[in-house]
Specification:
With 287 residues, the protein is α/β, with parallel strands linked by helices. Helices cover 24% and strands 25% of the residues. The protein is globular, with a radius of gyration of 21 Å.
Length: 287
């Protein structure tokens, strides 16, 4: 009888440990990659020649992190989902920027459509974080206005200034003005367990940030935003020509390399077309 009671006791302790572990958020974290298409680009903007890069086009990607304590949407693509209709074949769209430039993007799937394939609706997303305010990362931000927006104060001020611009225009992130917002600083631990951390990497914009995700099986990855565009910037040590503060970009890259060394994480360059082609896409995921 004592052996039976001891076995039952061990079983109860084990069950309690499992329940407590799940409550503390130690269940596997999932990282979904969302394909936002390909953007025509000019490597010379990054002090590279077309001959030095594997592909001149840049990939557009967004990501969803599913954590036991909530979900985080990271970047939202380059083309608003409500501006086009997927056909199952590549669709070409031209984005007209406020400065008069025209940028061609080719895409096949919508961001929210890929989320739906993973069983997620925008209204279910707990947190929204953008690497920065540029158009190719914010196109569907309005769809996540019900989430808590995690941003750097300096980026918030640039995106939604208190004084409206002289010539107002529809904005893909205007609805974030009504979102619950947390102005983060330093390394911000989203879920409080060190597995999903926003990293300060200013330079491309003043409030640019990267995202560290620690996965149980795939290991740690850092989503680089626009700290790099081409992998050759990293291997050839080239700096862009048009960042807000190029010297700050250099310092952020040095700091991030140290972070990668300390954590053993891999760097995912979001705009790397060749690498992105090999990432498995939603509804598949990394864990």
């Amino acid at each position: 009888m004592k052996k039976v009671l001891l076995s039952v006791g061990i079983l109860l302790v084990a069950l309690a440990f499992v329940v407590e572990s799940r409550a503390q958020g130690t269940s596997p974290i999932r990282l979904y990659v969302l394909d936002g298409g390909a953007l025509e680009s000019d490597p010379t903007r990054y002090r590279l020649t077309p001959q030095e890069v594997r592909a001149t086009q840049l990939s557009i990607t967004a990501f969803l992190v599913v954590h036991p304590r909530g979900t985080l949407m990271w970047d939202t693509g380059a083309v608003p989902d409500d501006s086009w209709t997927p056909t199952g074949r590549p669709v070409s769209k031209r984005i007209y920027l406020s400065d008069g430039r025209e940028r061609p993007v080719t895409l096949t799937k919508s961001i929210t459509g890929q989320l739906a394939e993973a069983g997620i609706q925008p209204s279910q997303v707990t947190f929204l974080a953008l690497s920065h305010a540029h158009w190719d990362h914010t196109a569907n931000a309005n769809s996540f206005a019900s989430a808590t927006w995690l941003t750097r104060q300096v980026e918030l001020d640039a995106m939604l200034p208190s004084t409206p611009p002289e010539v107002p225009a529809p904005s893909t992130f205007a609805r974030l003005r009504t979102s619950r917002t947390i102005a983060v600083s330093g390394e911000y631990d989203v879920f409080g367990d060190g597995t999903v951390v926003l990293l300060p990497t200013p330079g491309h914009t003043r409030g640019h940030q990267a995202l560290y995700v620690k996965l149980a099986n795939a290991g740690g990855v850092v989503l680089a935003g626009d700290l790099y565009h081409y992998p050759e910037e990293r291997t050839l040590n080239r700096l862009p020509t048009a960042d807000i503060d190029v010297e700050q970009t250099r310092q952020s890259r040095v700091w991030l390399e140290g972070f990668l060394m300390r954590t053993g994480a891999r760097l995912w360059i979001q705009h790397d077309l060749t690498a992105a082609a090999g990432w498995k896409k939603a509804p598949a995921y990394y864990d």
